[in-house]
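Here's what a typical entry looks like (Mutator family transposase):
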Amino acid sequence: MAKDLDEQVTAFRTRPLSEGPYTFVAADALTMKVREGGRVVKVAVMVATGVNADGYREVLGVQTSSVESGAGWLGFFRDLVARGLTGVAMVTSDAHAGLVEAIGATLPAASWQRCRTHYAANLMSVTPKSQWGWVKALLHSVYDQPDAEAVHAQFDRVLEGLYEKLPAVAEHLELARCDILAFTAFPRELWRQVWSNNPNERLNREIRRRTDVVGIFPNRDAVIRLVGAVLAEQHDEWAEQRRYLGLEVLARSRAVLAGRDPADNPEEVPTALIADAISA
């Protein structure tokens, strides 16, 4: 039975990504406990999802790595590209440096959206606890605007107010501007689906629900067997549900990618050139 399941999961996670272009991609990692060399260690389980040409969500891939590192993410994204990942306009993720470097190296035409939920936690860490309530409200006011121009105008007003009272918080926010507002290049109708990794939280919860029963896995193959089966099941469910994004709004989003200068986007960019531009 385990052999049959392994074959099914292997076929799923190595299948050609032929339903592209995958205009929007989201990436995240979870930590699992595994027995290796007579001790219990933590391994990173990297997962990517995307929206295909027909507007449906897909699970694109899953791999394990000893740690959530640049090398692990680079290998993961290179595998996705080799299997057919194309046409990516934007990738949403947290600000793990290795992950962002891998995105920039393997998908240089894509923009990067820093997950707004993760960023709020990062901003909270540099904000005095007594001040976080109103700072959080200001941050949310940026996302509540009706169009891209209004988003950027509100961002400027928020910065101006913060520099007067909390200059360190303002500086942190200003440095993150391009990353947390990347979504504004795309149609307003899909902002909520792409400005954070929150749409994947249900998927992460289901993975956790199933893996918590095991606790400590005997090996990495067992991790891939169970997590891969959960992901394949979710992948099939998404195929039966309504479109995640409409075809018309996807077409307008692809036009944004088409408008970017290909001369500025070589096939793969050395990660060393990207690292200094990332502020986690």
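Residues 116-181 form one domain.

More examples are in the samples folder.
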